[in-house]
Amino acid sequence: MTFPEVKMSLDELRALQIRRLRDTLRQAYEGQAPYRAKCQAADVHPDDFRELKDLARFPFTSKADLRDAYPFGMLAIPREQCVRLHASSGTTGRPTVVGYSARDINTWSDLMARSLHAGGARPGDIIHNAFGYGLFTGGLGAHYGAERLGCTVVPMSGGFSERQVQLIREFGARVVLMTPSYMLAIADEFERQGIDPRSTAMRVGLFGAEPWTEGMRAEIERRLGVDAVDLYGLSEVMGPGVACEFIETKDGPTIWEDHFYPEIVDPASGTSVPDGEPGELVFTTLTKEAMPVIRYRTRDLTRLMPGSASVMRRMAKITGRSDDMLIVRGVNLFPSQVEEQILRDPALSGHYVIELTRTGALDDLLVRVEARAVLASDAAGRSAAELGQRLKGMCGLSATIDVAGPGMIERSMGKARRVIDRRPKA
Predict the structure, then answer these.
(1) DSSP secondary structure string, 399-425?
(2) Which end of the chain has fewer CB atoms < 10 Å from its terminal CB, N or C?
């Protein structure tokens, strides 16, 4: 299977984007009453779009807009023409519902196949898919793409770590798909069973659905002997397969710009910032039929970089989300910053949790991190003291560090829960 779109010229790409953006803006305006109302309030019409810079005149779409339109108010086609619905968990409010036409499912399968191929999968490979199936887009999105690429799919979903290891070994999976934090839990299970993962056929892992650092990549590759590749997506835009790293470069996910137009904006003002500058990632879909989204604010913090394996631009590692940034004693702190400092110590693992409490008017910061092996009290104390010093030097915050023994921090079967905030609500 070949992917000629990846090799198109920059002029071809820009012309395609303009044509598809023009169609998408009209489709959203005519088919989505909530977005049409936002355009009318902003005094902008699809006819006002003539070149790429004109997109900045159009209003954003947010997760709140999707929740307010629950369940089907953002569909641009009749609900009867949708062949599938996915939805978020809705744990912080109403779920966000995303509809797909038959053409959307076909496009998604093609893009996920393209992502898998870029990430190192090849036709005929056995792919062990531990992304969650169901309303979460990860499992089915990856599944359809792997089948489209011509692979054999093991639809394992999450959980049952002992069985995960068994099937990876016995079925001979060359490629595994899951969240990076769950890959570490699988590594723990290999070690518990006394099995060297390098003795299996596993060689490539595509990981996504949560932010992860270069330190996490290095730990996964060291412990499991695989190439760890960054796969990016989000349900509101499509699902997994919006962007993916090339295994040959592993230098940031290439955004499939023939289907998704990216921007970076200042999280506070919403003003567009130039490529290379950090900010919040915004996407406009170019080929979604059932539910196009215009300038969707992902809340993911990153920057855009020039293409390497393609003229399509790359995105840097997600440093965090603007809506999960912690403010501790007036200091902005992201879990990924803590993870980066933890993984500088070879005695500490990537299993950790940040707990926030308050004594009087003062925030208390506790970092519980798991050691790779049982440590003597002096060694654990030394690791705790050094981590505390690194965090203090990095952000100026004093933290209590608790180094727990192996297996003492709860494992996640999907997205890791990194923060427990016990501070009183205002």
Answers:
(1) -EEEEEPTT-SPP-SSS---EEE-SPP
(2) C
